[in-house]
Amino acid sequence: MTSPNPQDARRLWSKKTHDLTPYIPGEQPRDRQFIKLNTNENPYPPAPGVLEALKSFPIEQLKLYPDPTGLKLRTTIAEYYGLPLNQVFAGNGSDEVLAMAFQAFFDYHGDPNTATATKQIVFPDVTYSFYPVYANLYNIPFRRVALNEDFTIPLGDLAAPSAGIILANPNAPTGIALTLDQVANLASADRNRLVIVDEAYIDFGGESAVALLTEFDNILVIQTLSKSRALAGLRVGFAFGDPQLIAALERVRDSFNSYTLDSLAQTCAVAAFEDGNWFESTRAHIMATRQRTTAALERLGFTVLPSAANFIFVSHKRLAGDLLYSQLREAGILVRHFKQPRIEQFLRISIGTDAEMDRLITALETIVS
User: Is 346 exposed, middle or buried (0-12, 13-18, 19+ CB in 10 A)?
Assistant: First the structure.
Protein backbone atom coordinates (compact mmCIF):
# COMPACT_ATOMS: atom_id res chain seq x y z
CA MET A 1 0.00 0.00 0.00
CA THR A 2 1.43 3.39 -1.00
CA SER A 3 1.87 5.91 1.82
CA PRO A 4 0.23 9.28 1.19
CA ASN A 5 2.39 12.33 0.60
CA PRO A 6 3.06 13.81 4.08
CA GLN A 7 2.05 17.26 2.84
CA ASP A 8 -1.38 15.90 1.99
CA ALA A 9 -2.04 15.34 5.69
CA ARG A 10 -3.14 18.95 5.81
CA ARG A 11 -6.41 17.66 4.42
CA LEU A 12 -7.01 16.39 7.97
CA TRP A 13 -6.79 19.85 9.47
CA SER A 14 -9.95 21.51 10.73
CA LYS A 15 -11.15 24.65 8.99
CA LYS A 16 -10.21 26.57 12.13
CA THR A 17 -6.62 25.34 11.90
CA HIS A 18 -6.41 26.36 8.26
CA ASP A 19 -7.67 29.84 9.06
CA LEU A 20 -5.41 30.54 12.04
CA THR A 21 -2.63 33.12 11.97
CA PRO A 22 -0.49 32.07 14.96
CA TYR A 23 1.39 34.36 17.30
CA ILE A 24 5.06 34.76 16.37
CA PRO A 25 7.37 34.88 19.43
CA GLY A 26 10.66 36.76 19.52
CA GLU A 27 13.68 35.04 18.07
CA GLN A 28 15.51 32.57 20.33
CA PRO A 29 18.82 32.03 18.47
CA ARG A 30 20.69 28.73 18.67
CA ASP A 31 23.40 29.15 16.05
CA ARG A 32 25.16 32.22 17.43
CA GLN A 33 25.74 34.11 20.65
CA PHE A 34 23.81 37.37 20.74
CA ILE A 35 23.08 40.04 23.28
CA LYS A 36 19.35 39.30 23.61
CA LEU A 37 17.31 42.45 23.96
CA ASN A 38 14.32 41.18 21.99
CA THR A 39 12.04 39.19 24.31
CA ASN A 40 11.80 41.29 27.49
CA GLU A 41 13.43 38.66 29.66
CA ASN A 42 15.01 39.69 32.94
CA PRO A 43 18.77 40.07 32.38
CA TYR A 44 19.62 38.84 35.87
CA PRO A 45 19.46 35.31 37.32
CA PRO A 46 16.49 34.42 39.55
CA ALA A 47 16.55 35.16 43.27
CA PRO A 48 18.99 33.17 45.43
CA GLY A 49 15.99 31.69 47.22
CA VAL A 50 14.90 30.07 43.95
CA LEU A 51 18.30 28.38 43.62
CA GLU A 52 17.99 27.03 47.15
CA ALA A 53 14.49 25.75 46.39
CA LEU A 54 15.87 23.93 43.34
CA LYS A 55 18.68 22.35 45.34
CA SER A 56 16.37 21.12 48.07
CA PHE A 57 13.48 19.99 45.88
CA PRO A 58 12.61 16.35 46.74
CA ILE A 59 13.20 14.54 43.46
CA GLU A 60 10.91 11.67 44.41
CA GLN A 61 8.01 14.14 44.34
CA LEU A 62 8.20 14.16 40.54
CA LYS A 63 6.56 10.74 40.40
CA LEU A 64 3.40 12.32 41.84
CA TYR A 65 0.96 14.68 40.18
CA PRO A 66 1.27 18.31 41.33
CA ASP A 67 -1.32 20.00 43.51
CA PRO A 68 -3.98 20.95 40.93
CA THR A 69 -5.12 23.92 43.02
CA GLY A 70 -1.60 25.29 43.63
CA LEU A 71 -2.66 25.88 47.23
CA LYS A 72 0.73 26.82 48.72
CA LEU A 73 1.58 29.10 45.82
CA ARG A 74 -1.83 30.77 45.82
CA THR A 75 -1.65 31.22 49.60
CA THR A 76 1.76 32.86 49.25
CA ILE A 77 0.51 35.18 46.51
CA ALA A 78 -2.68 36.02 48.40
CA GLU A 79 -0.70 36.98 51.51
CA TYR A 80 1.74 39.03 49.44
CA TYR A 81 -1.06 41.10 47.88
CA GLY A 82 -3.35 41.10 50.92
CA LEU A 83 -6.16 39.24 49.14
CA PRO A 84 -8.43 36.35 50.15
CA LEU A 85 -7.30 33.00 48.78
CA ASN A 86 -10.43 32.67 46.63
CA GLN A 87 -9.40 35.74 44.64
CA VAL A 88 -6.20 34.15 43.29
CA PHE A 89 -5.80 31.78 40.31
CA ALA A 90 -2.50 30.26 39.15
CA GLY A 91 -1.67 28.88 35.72
CA ASN A 92 1.08 27.84 33.34
CA GLY A 93 2.25 31.32 32.40
CA SER A 94 0.13 34.42 31.90
CA ASP A 95 -0.54 33.49 28.28
CA GLU A 96 -2.38 30.36 29.40
CA VAL A 97 -4.30 32.36 32.00
CA LEU A 98 -5.26 34.84 29.27
CA ALA A 99 -6.41 32.01 27.02
CA MET A 100 -8.60 30.61 29.80
CA ALA A 101 -10.03 34.08 30.45
CA PHE A 102 -11.02 34.42 26.78
CA GLN A 103 -12.84 31.09 27.04
CA ALA A 104 -14.40 31.76 30.44
CA PHE A 105 -15.86 35.21 29.80
CA PHE A 106 -16.41 35.75 26.07
CA ASP A 107 -18.32 33.75 23.49
CA TYR A 108 -20.28 34.29 20.31
CA HIS A 109 -22.55 32.13 18.22
CA GLY A 110 -22.51 33.24 14.62
CA ASP A 111 -20.25 34.88 12.11
CA PRO A 112 -17.78 37.11 14.02
CA ASN A 113 -17.42 39.29 10.92
CA THR A 114 -21.01 40.48 11.23
CA ALA A 115 -21.11 40.97 15.00
CA THR A 116 -22.40 44.28 16.32
CA ALA A 117 -20.25 46.55 18.48
CA THR A 118 -21.81 45.33 21.71
CA LYS A 119 -20.85 41.75 20.81
CA GLN A 120 -17.20 42.59 20.12
CA ILE A 121 -14.36 42.71 22.61
CA VAL A 122 -11.98 45.66 22.19
CA PHE A 123 -8.28 46.30 22.56
CA PRO A 124 -5.82 48.84 21.12
CA ASP A 125 -4.55 48.49 17.56
CA VAL A 126 -0.96 48.53 18.86
CA THR A 127 -0.71 46.12 21.76
CA TYR A 128 0.19 42.52 22.62
CA SER A 129 -0.36 40.59 19.40
CA PHE A 130 -1.67 37.47 21.15
CA TYR A 131 -5.05 39.14 21.78
CA PRO A 132 -6.36 38.85 18.20
CA VAL A 133 -4.86 35.35 17.97
CA TYR A 134 -6.93 34.18 20.93
CA ALA A 135 -10.02 35.97 19.66
CA ASN A 136 -9.75 34.22 16.30
CA LEU A 137 -9.02 30.86 17.90
CA TYR A 138 -12.15 31.03 20.08
CA ASN A 139 -14.36 32.68 17.44
CA ILE A 140 -14.76 35.86 19.48
CA PRO A 141 -15.51 39.00 17.45
CA PHE A 142 -13.23 41.92 18.20
CA ARG A 143 -12.36 45.41 17.10
CA ARG A 144 -9.18 47.41 17.45
CA VAL A 145 -9.18 50.94 18.82
CA ALA A 146 -6.51 53.15 17.26
CA LEU A 147 -4.01 54.63 19.70
CA ASN A 148 -3.57 58.38 19.69
CA GLU A 149 -0.75 59.88 17.62
CA ASP A 150 1.49 59.89 20.70
CA PHE A 151 0.62 56.19 21.28
CA THR A 152 -1.45 56.87 24.39
CA ILE A 153 -4.75 55.03 24.74
CA PRO A 154 -7.93 56.91 23.71
CA LEU A 155 -9.95 56.10 26.80
CA GLY A 156 -13.26 57.32 25.41
CA ASP A 157 -13.03 55.04 22.38
CA LEU A 158 -11.97 52.09 24.52
CA ALA A 159 -14.87 52.69 26.92
CA ALA A 160 -17.50 52.70 24.12
CA PRO A 161 -20.08 49.87 24.26
CA SER A 162 -18.52 46.43 23.76
CA ALA A 163 -18.54 42.89 25.11
CA GLY A 164 -15.30 43.36 27.03
CA ILE A 165 -12.02 45.26 27.22
CA ILE A 166 -8.53 43.76 27.03
CA LEU A 167 -5.89 46.14 28.29
CA ALA A 168 -2.13 45.63 28.61
CA ASN A 169 -0.90 47.99 31.31
CA PRO A 170 1.82 49.05 30.76
CA ASN A 171 1.05 48.57 27.10
CA ALA A 172 3.28 46.48 24.90
CA PRO A 173 5.21 47.29 22.82
CA THR A 174 4.93 51.00 23.69
CA GLY A 175 5.63 50.72 27.44
CA ILE A 176 3.14 53.50 28.21
CA ALA A 177 1.08 52.97 31.37
CA LEU A 178 -2.36 54.08 32.50
CA THR A 179 -3.02 55.39 35.99
CA LEU A 180 -5.29 53.61 38.45
CA ASP A 181 -7.90 56.33 38.00
CA GLN A 182 -7.93 55.72 34.24
CA VAL A 183 -8.38 51.97 34.71
CA ALA A 184 -11.14 52.63 37.24
CA ASN A 185 -12.92 54.92 34.78
CA LEU A 186 -12.89 52.15 32.16
CA ALA A 187 -14.36 49.70 34.65
CA SER A 188 -16.97 52.25 35.78
CA ALA A 189 -18.19 52.89 32.23
CA ASP A 190 -20.10 49.59 32.26
CA ARG A 191 -20.21 47.51 35.43
CA ASN A 192 -21.62 44.57 33.47
CA ARG A 193 -18.58 44.41 31.18
CA LEU A 194 -15.33 42.70 32.12
CA VAL A 195 -12.05 44.60 31.93
CA ILE A 196 -9.02 42.30 31.72
CA VAL A 197 -5.85 44.12 32.78
CA ASP A 198 -2.74 42.32 31.58
CA GLU A 199 0.02 43.46 33.94
CA ALA A 200 3.02 41.52 32.64
CA TYR A 201 5.28 44.56 33.16
CA ILE A 202 3.58 46.26 36.10
CA ASP A 203 6.52 45.88 38.50
CA PHE A 204 8.73 48.23 36.49
CA GLY A 205 6.90 51.45 37.26
CA GLY A 206 3.15 50.96 36.84
CA GLU A 207 0.27 50.99 39.33
CA SER A 208 -1.40 47.61 39.74
CA ALA A 209 -5.17 47.36 39.39
CA VAL A 210 -5.14 44.82 42.23
CA ALA A 211 -5.82 47.90 44.37
CA LEU A 212 -9.19 48.31 42.62
CA LEU A 213 -10.55 44.82 43.26
CA THR A 214 -12.34 45.75 46.48
CA GLU A 215 -14.41 48.26 44.48
CA PHE A 216 -14.83 46.49 41.14
CA ASP A 217 -16.00 42.93 40.56
CA ASN A 218 -15.64 43.43 36.80
CA ILE A 219 -11.83 43.73 36.75
CA LEU A 220 -9.59 40.70 36.23
CA VAL A 221 -5.87 41.33 36.74
CA ILE A 222 -3.33 38.98 35.16
CA GLN A 223 0.35 38.92 36.07
CA THR A 224 3.42 36.76 35.45
CA LEU A 225 6.70 35.75 37.06
CA SER A 226 8.46 35.76 33.68
CA LYS A 227 9.64 39.37 33.81
CA SER A 228 10.25 40.94 37.20
CA ARG A 229 10.95 37.61 38.94
CA ALA A 230 13.22 36.23 36.17
CA LEU A 231 11.31 32.95 35.81
CA ALA A 232 10.34 33.00 32.12
CA GLY A 233 11.61 29.42 31.74
CA LEU A 234 9.27 28.06 34.43
CA ARG A 235 6.00 29.49 33.00
CA VAL A 236 4.11 30.77 36.04
CA GLY A 237 1.20 33.19 35.72
CA PHE A 238 -1.73 34.15 37.91
CA ALA A 239 -4.94 36.13 38.00
CA PHE A 240 -6.70 38.23 40.64
CA GLY A 241 -10.38 39.04 40.72
CA ASP A 242 -13.76 38.56 42.29
CA PRO A 243 -14.22 34.99 43.63
CA GLN A 244 -16.82 34.28 40.94
CA LEU A 245 -14.36 35.31 38.22
CA ILE A 246 -11.77 32.97 39.71
CA ALA A 247 -14.38 30.20 39.88
CA ALA A 248 -15.02 30.63 36.14
CA LEU A 249 -11.31 30.25 35.39
CA GLU A 250 -11.19 27.11 37.52
CA ARG A 251 -14.13 25.62 35.60
CA VAL A 252 -12.32 26.18 32.30
CA ARG A 253 -9.03 24.82 33.65
CA ASP A 254 -10.66 21.68 35.04
CA SER A 255 -12.40 21.12 31.70
CA PHE A 256 -9.04 21.24 29.93
CA ASN A 257 -6.16 20.16 32.21
CA SER A 258 -6.35 20.23 35.99
CA TYR A 259 -2.56 19.88 36.33
CA THR A 260 -1.44 22.95 34.42
CA LEU A 261 1.32 24.03 36.82
CA ASP A 262 4.00 21.48 37.72
CA SER A 263 5.42 20.88 41.21
CA LEU A 264 8.85 22.35 40.50
CA ALA A 265 7.37 25.55 39.09
CA GLN A 266 5.09 25.94 42.11
CA THR A 267 7.98 25.44 44.53
CA CYS A 268 10.26 27.94 42.77
CA ALA A 269 7.46 30.48 42.44
CA VAL A 270 6.88 30.41 46.20
CA ALA A 271 10.60 30.96 46.76
CA ALA A 272 10.60 33.89 44.33
CA PHE A 273 7.87 35.67 46.30
CA GLU A 274 9.63 35.00 49.58
CA ASP A 275 12.91 36.57 48.41
CA GLY A 276 11.65 40.14 48.50
CA ASN A 277 15.04 41.87 48.81
CA TRP A 278 16.21 40.44 45.47
CA PHE A 279 12.97 41.50 43.79
CA GLU A 280 13.09 45.10 45.02
CA SER A 281 16.78 45.65 44.28
CA THR A 282 16.66 44.02 40.84
CA ARG A 283 13.65 45.89 39.54
CA ALA A 284 15.09 49.16 40.86
CA HIS A 285 18.33 48.41 39.01
CA ILE A 286 16.46 47.69 35.76
CA MET A 287 14.46 50.92 36.05
CA ALA A 288 17.66 52.91 36.66
CA THR A 289 19.29 51.29 33.62
CA ARG A 290 16.19 52.12 31.57
CA GLN A 291 16.45 55.78 32.54
CA ARG A 292 20.17 55.94 31.75
CA THR A 293 19.68 54.19 28.40
CA THR A 294 16.82 56.49 27.47
CA ALA A 295 18.95 59.56 28.08
CA ALA A 296 21.82 58.15 26.02
CA LEU A 297 19.57 57.28 23.07
CA GLU A 298 17.91 60.68 23.10
CA ARG A 299 21.37 62.24 22.79
CA LEU A 300 21.82 60.15 19.63
CA GLY A 301 18.66 61.59 18.08
CA PHE A 302 16.24 58.82 19.05
CA THR A 303 12.66 59.39 20.14
CA VAL A 304 11.96 57.21 23.19
CA LEU A 305 8.40 56.76 24.39
CA PRO A 306 7.88 57.10 28.17
CA SER A 307 8.14 53.56 29.52
CA ALA A 308 6.95 51.93 32.73
CA ALA A 309 8.14 48.50 31.54
CA ASN A 310 11.44 46.62 31.26
CA PHE A 311 11.80 47.74 27.65
CA ILE A 312 11.78 50.95 25.63
CA PHE A 313 10.15 51.74 22.29
CA VAL A 314 12.34 53.91 20.11
CA SER A 315 12.62 55.42 16.64
CA HIS A 316 15.19 57.57 14.89
CA LYS A 317 14.41 60.66 12.85
CA ARG A 318 16.77 59.66 10.01
CA LEU A 319 17.18 55.87 10.09
CA ALA A 320 14.48 53.31 9.27
CA GLY A 321 13.51 50.73 11.84
CA ASP A 322 14.32 47.72 9.67
CA LEU A 323 17.77 49.14 8.88
CA LEU A 324 18.53 49.70 12.56
CA TYR A 325 17.31 46.20 13.37
CA SER A 326 19.45 44.51 10.72
CA GLN A 327 22.59 46.50 11.54
CA LEU A 328 22.24 45.78 15.24
CA ARG A 329 21.83 42.12 14.41
CA GLU A 330 25.03 42.20 12.40
CA ALA A 331 26.69 43.70 15.46
CA GLY A 332 25.48 40.76 17.57
CA ILE A 333 22.56 42.51 19.27
CA LEU A 334 18.96 41.32 18.93
CA VAL A 335 16.08 43.76 19.34
CA ARG A 336 12.45 43.46 18.22
CA HIS A 337 11.14 45.03 15.03
CA PHE A 338 7.45 44.82 14.13
CA LYS A 339 6.56 45.01 10.46
CA GLN A 340 3.13 46.50 10.93
CA PRO A 341 1.49 49.84 10.22
CA ARG A 342 2.24 52.80 12.49
CA ILE A 343 5.18 51.17 14.28
CA GLU A 344 7.41 49.87 11.51
CA GLN A 345 9.92 52.67 12.20
CA PHE A 346 10.22 51.66 15.86
CA LEU A 347 12.34 49.14 17.72
CA ARG A 348 11.40 47.55 21.02
CA ILE A 349 14.54 47.18 23.11
CA SER A 350 14.53 45.10 26.29
CA ILE A 351 16.55 46.45 29.19
CA GLY A 352 19.61 44.27 29.72
CA THR A 353 22.52 44.52 32.11
CA ASP A 354 24.46 47.76 32.27
CA ALA A 355 27.25 46.18 30.22
CA GLU A 356 24.79 44.99 27.57
CA MET A 357 23.17 48.41 27.28
CA ASP A 358 26.59 50.02 26.98
CA ARG A 359 27.30 47.68 24.06
CA LEU A 360 23.97 48.68 22.51
CA ILE A 361 24.72 52.40 22.82
CA THR A 362 28.22 51.95 21.38
CA ALA A 363 26.81 50.02 18.41
CA LEU A 364 24.14 52.66 17.78
CA GLU A 365 26.70 55.44 17.97
CA THR A 366 28.53 53.74 15.11
CA ILE A 367 25.36 53.13 13.10
CA VAL A 368 24.02 56.66 13.54
CA SER A 369 27.33 58.29 12.65
Answer: buried
